[in-house]
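User: structure tokens for this one?
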Amino acid sequence: MTFPFPIRKECPPGACDCRRELLEADPQADARVLRLTREEEKRLVERIEAIGSYAELVRVGQRLQEQLGVTLTIAPGPNEVRTVRGFAIELAPRPGLCRKTRQAVPAAIRRCLEARPEIAFAILDAHDLLGR
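Assistant:
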């Protein structure tokens, strides 16, 4: 299958569990996630690390859904949230989404939250954990 846009290079066999072959085999599949090349992923990580407010973080999550069909979930973890490690941050697995991307984006969000604790408090407040 050929794509009208540049796509992410294939991972070495056995190194990733992205199931990219499912997208390539089905001409009706939503292949938008393949637009996230390694260079674009680096730009996304830089953009996430530069986020300055909770509204910007929410907007980046919406843009990921709109442009790539990837769902970003950020919520307080099941236990106490004492540090940013207490947040459950994940990209929903889907065919074509590289394992490295599923790790790099949450790590970038954690670095952003460490640099700007007010965003972490806004996330807690949005989930009604601060009781305001």
